[in-house]
Amino acid sequence: MNKELEFAGKIEELKKLAREQGNTVSTEQVEEIFASIGMSGVNLEPVYEYLKTKKIGIGAPIDIDDSLNEDDKNYLELYLEELTLLEEYSEGEKLAHYISALAGHEDSKKRVIEIMLPNVVDIAKLYTDQGVALEDLIGEGNVALMAGVSMLGALESGSEVPGALSGMIMNAMEELIAEEEERKKRDGNILLKVNKVAEVAVELSESLKRKVTVDELIEETGLERELIEEAIRMSGGKIEEIEIDGE
After folding, report:
1. In degrees, to the nearest 5, what angle opens at C-alpha 58 toward C-alphas 57 and 62?
2. What is the CA radius of gyration of the chain?
3. Dihedral through CA 32, CA 33, CA 39, CA 44, nearest 10?
């Protein structure tokens, strides 16, 4: 197997283990996982640095609150204040509601959502600094939680409920982050094409001593009409060298 693929696989294995352990792993676990691909000692330093960026603690949890920006801190303060209004449950009461939710009881499903809302916050903190605001992460997590309580029928016991729902919440947040990364990449590509259209428009306009048409830009750049028109829209009509219908 390709070394890069092996390494990436071990990283994913390590991240999964960390999630199961409160976002913490031990140095022994790191060494054990990477020993099979011949990595040890100083060779593991990049792995430890990567884990820090993902807020995964080595031997002890990382205090994530210290790394939150001011907007996230202000939002979190107000949101947590709202959560204090929720009813508190003992561990026995929680388990009873988990079991009842598995049996399809609607009231217990609502209680499970209430029980898990603080967990959504804790999970969202783990995904800050990855391009999505904490408020959006919590919102996406709450949606996943509400959907998840209706998908618990396959579980065998109530004790599995918190872990199953946490997994659904994590997956939803990771998908949101991936979508945002893809959007930024797409917007970046469009911006590059906008710049290309603007650059060609300026050069062609100077050469022809007049504004240029969209058809002339299509011929000059090889880009599709739709993309050039999108570039004009994204520029807010500020590419003055292009002749726009009606102007």
Report:
1. 25
2. 26
3. -90
Amino acid at 91: E
CB 41 within 8 A of CB 73: no
On whether the CB atoms of residues 169 and 119 are closer than 8 A, the answer is: yes
pLDDT computed for residue 247 by the predictor: 44
Can you give the three-state secondary structure of 3-24, one letter per residue?
HHHHHHHHHHHHHHHHHHCCCE
Q: Which amino acid is residue 132, in one-letter code? A: V
108 neighbors 167 (Cβ within 8 angstroms): no
Global confidence as pTM: 0.65
**Can you tell me the distance from the alpha carbon of 198 to that of 159, in angstroms, rounded to the nearest whole number?**
60
76 closest CA partner among 128, 22, 143, 21: 128
At 59-117, the pLDDT tens digits run: 887 777 777 888 888 999 999 999 999 999 999 999 999 999 999 999 999 999 999 99
CB atoms within 10 A of CB 88: 8
Read off the tokens for 216: 């002339």
